[in-house]
Amino acid sequence: MIAVDIRADLNAEDQTGYVWAFLDEAREPSVIVPGALVVAGDEDVPAVAVVVDLVEHPNGTIVHLDVLPGALDNYLALARRVQTVA
Amino acid sequence: MSDLPDLRDFVRVEPLPRTATIIVRGGPDTAEKLRTHTQRVRRAFLLDGDPVLGISVFAALDDVGPASLDAILSGKLSTYRVVHLVTAGQLAEAGFEMLPTFGRPHMTLLLSSEDQVESLLEVLGTAQANPRYGEMVRRRRG
Predict the structure, then answer these.
(1) Does residue B10 lie within any of the structural domains?
(2) Is residue A44 included in any domain, yes or no?
(3) What is the dihedral sign for C-alpha A49, B36, B129, A3?
(4) What 3-state class would DSSP assign to B34?
(5) In sequence order, what are the residues at sequence separation of 6 or more whose Cβ sits closer than 8 angstroms to the Cβ of residue B115?
(6) In this structure, is residue B136 part of a structural domain?
(7) CA-based, 20 to 30 A from B22: which of A35, B31, B63, B109?
(8) Which alpha helices (DSSP H) does chain B contain, by range?
(9) B93/chain A closest Cα distance in angstroms
(10) In this predicted structure, what is the pLDDT of residue B136?
(11) What distance in Å separates the CA atoms of residue A4 and residue B98, rounded to the nearest whole number?
(12) A11 — phi, psi (to 5°)?
């Protein structure tokens, strides 16, 4: 099973045009920093994303995510290939 | 609560989708997921100063270009193996109001209460394979 870094509805965009989520829905909030590569979504629909920024909100901290194209499997295959070569 | 941003401030000035317009949502959805997402929207936004339950969807507003069905499936929803497809008319018939929010073609589907989650799930129907799943098209910001 995939353990996502931050739970999000990848359909949900806000005024920035990015997908948004609440920081307190992150598995390990300390890894959610601008520029970090993370897995977002849920167990059924994980996707690779870059953390764009963290914005204070009256009910928590909003995380903006730039969802990268392609299936998570593509990125996992890439990582395996790189490791094999190394 | 009153400090929350109001969805009304992010409503686009454009006609509502025609009844035949295809509405798309990356899936698969379950009642539990929909409840979680509606609560997340309620936590983040108000609508006209009141709490709001909403679900994000995309409307295939154009035949070609970034707001077309093909572009939505291959761009914003390319990370979804399956999608729910329904018409705006079917949603309206089932009692759901939609607001064109944020960047085109994003829409917010409004629920009057959590009791509507099961009804929404029924209208969304069975998720279908996304023929553009996994394509390496960079998601275009709305």
Answers:
(1) no
(2) yes
(3) positive
(4) helix
(5) none
(6) no
(7) B31
(8) 31-44, 69-74, 88-93, 117-124
(9) 23
(10) 82
(11) 30
(12) -80, -20
Whole-number pLDDT of residue A10 = 97
Is the link from the previous residue into B105 a cis peptide, with omega within 30 of 0? yes
- Rounded to the nearest angstrom, the minimum Cα separation between A38 and chain B is 14
Boundaries of domain holding B32: 23-129
**Structure tokens, A57:** 């909100």
Q: Are A52 and A34 in contact (CB under 8 A)?
A: yes
ipTM value, please give it: 0.94
Contact assignment for B43 to A66 by CB distance below 8 Å: no
User: Which of A10, A14, A43, A63 is the best substitution to test chain B (most B C-beta atoms within 10 A)?
Assistant: A14
Q: Is A34 on the interface with B (CB under 8 A)?
A: no
In a domain, A11, yes or no: yes
Work out the burial of residue B14: count CB atoms within 10 Å of its CB; fewer than 13 is exposed, 13-18 middle, 19 or more buried.
exposed
Cα pseudo-dihedral B123, B125, B127, B128, rounded to 10:
-110
Q: Report if residue A1 sits inside a domain.
A: no
Q: Check: CB of residue A39 under 8 Å from CB of residue A5.
A: yes
Residue corresponding to tokens 């996994």: B134
Pick B139 or B118 by higher pLDDT.
B118
What is the domain extent for residue A12? 6-85
| pLDDT reading at B1 higher than 60 | no
Domain count, chain B: 1
The length of chain A is 86
